[in-house]
Amino acid sequence: VGDLTMGGASSNLRSMLSEEASRVRGDRLAGEPSGLRLSEMLKFEVPDEFAGDVVVPHIATLWVLDRDKDGRFSDEDIHAFADEMGKYTHGLVREDWKDYLIGKFYMQLHDDVLRPRRDEPSSSADAYEEASSREPLRAFEGDDRDDENVARRPSSSAPSVGKSEKKRQKEDFTPYLDWFSRVCLANEPGSKAHYHASRPRVAFVSVDTAHDVYLAFNVRNASALTRDAADGFAFQTFLETLHVDAEESQLMGLEEEELDDYVPLETLLKWVCGVLRGYS
């Protein structure tokens, strides 16, 4: 069990992890960070002796893995992750590692993001709720954007909680949504969103990034897609669902063929927000 720790005696493991990161790392533009993109992290294979112990495509694993929350997975992130795994699993029966680690990562996600906050809601949070009640995907719409690559976030407050209760207990998924926006943008060429003449104020990501999100969240195994997964159409169904939602939110039109290979980042974040509510 101790072999998993990343102390001085585990420099060989550190080298193995760095070599695997190098294997999956694609080309970089001049000055672009070397940290792995989501698409590359999904190809990362843990050393054989630990295969099956770590589930990388998981909402909580990815959150914990990116320690500095910059949207990329650096060698330092991966080494620190392995170090923490060694501490978590010390003294445990090997068969229990996988379930324990998933539980541990989920609890960290819960403490960082999912745990309801009991502070008074801020005026900005109230504004987000008011806007989202009128038009859910446009809670952050405005003409003045400090960062053109950051999409408007959906409201992260649970709509079913009564007003008096909202003041005592507040869900706020903003840290995860902001981080995942960075993950998606880092996955794009040049780490930038796509903009189109027909929708100049809507930030889009490619269908490739949408597919990586599909893999990262293990959407294929969703019960609603069981039949489509068996027929090989699960991702297409997922993509069509995102496109329909985007059209209903007036972020794109299904007749705009030039947008077929893109998804509004805002729509993707709205979907992620729904997943988080399912976990909270």
Write a concise synopsis of the structure shown.
Helix content is 48%, strand content 5%. The protein contains twelve helices and three strands.
Strand order of the largest sheet: 1-2-3
**Integer-rounded radius of gyration:** 20 Å
SS-derived structural category:
mainly alpha
Helix-residue proportion: 40-55%
Give the SSE order as H and E letters. Answer: HHHHHHHHEEHHHEH
Mean pLDDT: 80
End-to-end gap? 32 Å
Tell me the overall shape.
globular
Residues in β-strands, percent: 5-15%
Largest beta-sheet characterization: 3 strands, antiparallel
Individual helix count: 12
Textual characterization of the structure:
With 280 residues, this protein is mainly alpha-helical. The chain is 48% helix and 5% strand. The protein is built from 12 helices and 3 strands. The chain has helices at 11-24, 38-41, 59-65, 75-89, 97-114, 123-134, 163-168, 174-186, 207-216, 226-231, 234-248, 265-279; strands spanning 194-196, 199-206, 262-264. The chain has a 3-stranded antiparallel sheet with strand order 1-2-3. The chain is globular and about 55 Å long.
